[in-house]
Known about the structure:
With about 350 residues, the chain is α+β, with helices and mostly antiparallel strands. Helices cover about 35% and strands about 20% of the residues. A 7-stranded antiparallel beta sheet has the order 2-1-12-11-10-9-8, sandwiched between helices.
Amino acid sequence: MNINLVLEPIRVRYNLPALAGAIITSEGLTAIGAVGERKYGSGIPVKIEDQFHLGSCTKAMTSTLIGILVEAGKLQWQTTLAQAFESEMLPIYRTITLEQLLSHQAGFPEPDQPWLTGKTPMEMYHLPGSIQQQRQDYLKLALQQPPTFPLGEFHYSNMGYVVAAAMAEQVMKASWEDLITEKLFQPLGMTTAGFGPMGTQGQIAQPWQHFEENGQIEAIDPDPDHDNPPLVSPAGRVHASMEDWGKFISLHLQGERGNSKLLKPETLQKLHTPALERGYMQAGSSDSYGLGWIVTERDWGGGRVLYHNGSNTLNFALVWMAAQGDFAVLVATNQGGERASRGTDEAVGALLEVWQ
C-alpha cells in the first residue's frame, strides 16, 4: 500500500518540511510512508526509518510504564504522594493518587505555566544533579505551591506526569529514562526510541525541527536545548521512527483484543478507560481522558476510539486508535504550529479513507 501518494499532496498543500504516516493493527505494521525533506530546502529526502518527535504522545508511554510497575507490585494506582515521598508537602497533596496524576486531576497548572518558581527558561536546561535528583528537587518545590485548580477536576498538565515519573524513580531507584528503555522500548524492539531532538548537531542525519513565523519556515539545529527541558521528558520528549511508534500502538490494540504479551489486557484497558464520567473539554463534549489517552466516539471507528496529539512547538504528532476495528493511524511532521496541526489532521482523515 503506497501511502506516499496520499501524504505528498497534503504535505505540499500545508508547506510542511516532511510528513510521515503509518497504519497499524494488533498484528503490526500494515502501511508506512514518509515524504518531504529532513531539513526544509536542503534537498535531503526523509526516509521511512527516520525518527519523529512525539511530544505529548509520550504520556501514553509513561502511563504504560506505570502499568508495568503496578503489575510487578512496585506501585498501585491508588498509591498516594504521602506514601511515595517523605518530603514535606502541603496537606492537600497528601492524598493525591498515582491515577489522579495520570488523568490530570491533581490540581496542577496548565502546560504553559512556569515549571519552577524563580528559574529562567534557560536555567531549566542546566539544573544541578542527575535527572532523578532534578525531578525530586522539582517535586519538593512544586508540592509547596498551592493547587492551581480544584483536586478531582480535569485540567491538562505536564506536571502530573513528571511527578508520576518521580514516583516510579523513587520506588525503582532508577531514572524514568532507564526504566522506560528497559521495560518498554527494549521488550517491544523500539530501537530508534530516544529523548529530545532527533539526530546530531550540525548534521542532517535525521529530520530537523522547524517553526513557521510570518510565513517563513526556519529549520532548528538539533541542539539538546531545542526542546522541552529533560526534566519534562515523561510528559512529552520521546522521539521514534514511525514503525517503532507503531509497535507501541500495536501493543495497545492487542490489549483491547485480549492477547497482549507485555501487559495484561485488563491493565491496558484501564489506561483506555475514562477516569472521569463527564466530558472535560467544552460543554456537551463527549471527550474524556483516560491515562495518557483521550477517549471519544467516531462512527468510522465503530464507536469508542482513542487519540492524542503532541507537540513541543517545533514538531507535531497525532495518533487515532480504533479498538473495535483493530487499527490505528499515526501521522507526524517535523514542524510545529497551526499549519502542522491542520496538515496532520487532514492526513489522518486521508489515511482512514485508504484503510476503509
